[in-house]
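INFO  loader      accepted 1 record
INFO  loader      residues=154
INFO  predictor   begin
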Amino acid sequence: MKLRTNLFTLVMLFAGLTTCFAANPTLGTWKLNEAKSKLAAGTPKNQTVVYEAAGDKIKGTIDGVDAQGKPLHNEWTGKFDGKDYPVTGDPTSDTRAIKQIDDRHYELTIKKDGKVRITGQAVISADGKTRTVTVSGTNAEGKKITSTSVYEKQ
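INFO  predictor   done
INFO  writer      dumping tokens
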């Protein structure tokens, strides 16, 4: 009887996690719509962003190009709890912190060497088809920047 109860508990836990992540409108593949975006000159373009469940965390995979058109790839795995999690593959940042505000809004903070470089927010449209990310801060040269990137769910 205990085995059956434990098995049932595990199945229900897995089903609950699956439902939780399935209902998260952030998850999926997002493609940059440059025509609708207002990107700061000389900043990288995150052309594709993929968010997927990774255990009890979320993994973000970002592919794009730098200011010279060279390919960029970086990854982040963490929770949307506002805490810093390491970034790999991005020479301009060491950590990202994402804080979920509600189902369709979150704030982000990007740091390099412990210093905040970029802050911003993301808003997912009510129909879940568009994600708008607005950021401000300083670029690698120390110049102030502001960018708005509009992504469409694929």
